[in-house]
Amino acid sequence: MINKVDPNLIRELEEYGLKDANKCYNCGTCTAICDLATPENPFPRKLVRYIQLGQKEKILRSPEPWLCYYCGDCSTRCPRGADPGETMMVLRRYLTSLYDWTGFARKFYTSETFEIIAVAIVGILVGLGLLIFHSSPINWAHTDLNSVWPSDGIEKADLVMAAILLFFLLTNVYRCIKIVMGDYFTKVPVGMYLNELKLFFINLLTQKQFGKCKDRQQWIVHLAIMTGYSAIFLMVVVLVNGLPLGIDWLKFQRGWASLGGRTEYSIFHPIRLIGYYATFAIMYGTTYALIGRLRKSKPQYKSSHGTDWMFLILLQLTTMTGIFINFTRLLDWPLVTYAIYVIHMMVAIPMLVLEVPFAKWAHLAYRPIVLMLLSIKEKYIAEHTQAEGPVLSAKPAA
Ligand code: SF4
Ligand code: SF4
């Protein structure tokens, strides 16, 4: 029943960081000034109202939380201080946990202690694994990561990690599609989903909807983090074993001396340039966001959740240790390089296996997916309205 009232909804959302939604008196100012709201999707007011009315089922099926990029304009202009921008952020956390069938996402978002312990356990296991499983003899005279952890072994471990995290991410994305599409999920032919796949990639890579907001600086920061992180994710997780495609990320990450005879990329090789871009973009984006959150300089930085900090800190630590590895191997400091490599993996692996499918990173997948689904629904309805007369509306229930 879509209209069933859940009296515990506000209490439940408070666990995800909800604070001020009850102050809202439904004036509609927030929706009027939001650059991304449309007559079909009048957020954030409608979602704040759903919360007040305990409409859990309607929230679950709403695409609107994913249409908001948290520019913060609505929170600045709300006459009641109800912070609708943060409310949309809370709903994204809530939906992420509802899409996730394992229950981990809920744990991450409702318990900072759980998240810290989970990250620490995975990090320690990775560290112990690297200390126990290494080759010998180790080259202590010159920096040679390949003499300690051969590239072939690292590539195999990467493949296992990629398989695990993609399994969880894709099964959760499948649930997201099923929930958002509702009655249309089976009606829409597979070909239509495939035809619209390009929209997913366009929105993922350009964040073009965010570009419509007034705060262009925030769009650039978001784009820098997203493109930098996606580039590394693609090369490390998807293409690290992409030698048939001619791509070998380890050549960039570990240097020629660590590759057991493979030839290093030249300074202007596209893979090297992508690596440099990703490093710069992530450092710029995460530093800006961390300073903003510390200073609470913008509405979107005023109510930082534990998962926001964890994502930014892990991402910045991974990038910084990656930069250090490159410097220390060029300086030929074997012990320091090997030690930093262990720390690098201890922060990078928990970030990939925990943050990507269950926490902050997941929104980078859900947002362009939902934008694509909205377009699919609209096209399906337009085609069938012409052919058969009126069918179910694509508009979320008001
Ligand atoms: S959240 Fe604020 S601006 Fe939006 S409808 Fe409520 S009171 Fe008005
Ligand atoms: S934070 Fe920005 S994009 Fe999100 S609802 Fe408010 S005004 Fe719209």
Could you write a compact summary of the structure shown?
With 398 residues, this protein is mainly α. Helices cover 66% and strands 0% of the residues.
Description:
Helix content is 66%, strand content 0%. It starts with 8 loop residues before the first helix and ends in a 10-residue tail after the last helix. The chain has two domains: 9-99, Fumarate Reductase Iron-sulfur Protein, Chain B, domain 2 (Orthogonal Bundle); 104-374, no CATH class. It is built from 19 helices and no strands. It is mainly alpha-helical and 398 residues long. It has helices at 9-14, 29-33, 45-53, 56-61, 73-77, 84-99, 104-110, 112-132, 145-148, 151-181, 184-187, 190-195, 197-206, 216-238, 249-254, 270-295, 306-330, 334-358, 362-388. Residues 241-247, 256-262 and 392-398 have low confidence and may be disordered. The site of one iron/sulfur cluster has 14 residues, from α2 and α3.
List the keywords:
globular, 2 domains, Fumarate Reductase Iron-sulfur Protein, Chain B, domain 2, mainly alpha, disordered C terminus, 398 residues, binds iron/sulfur cluster
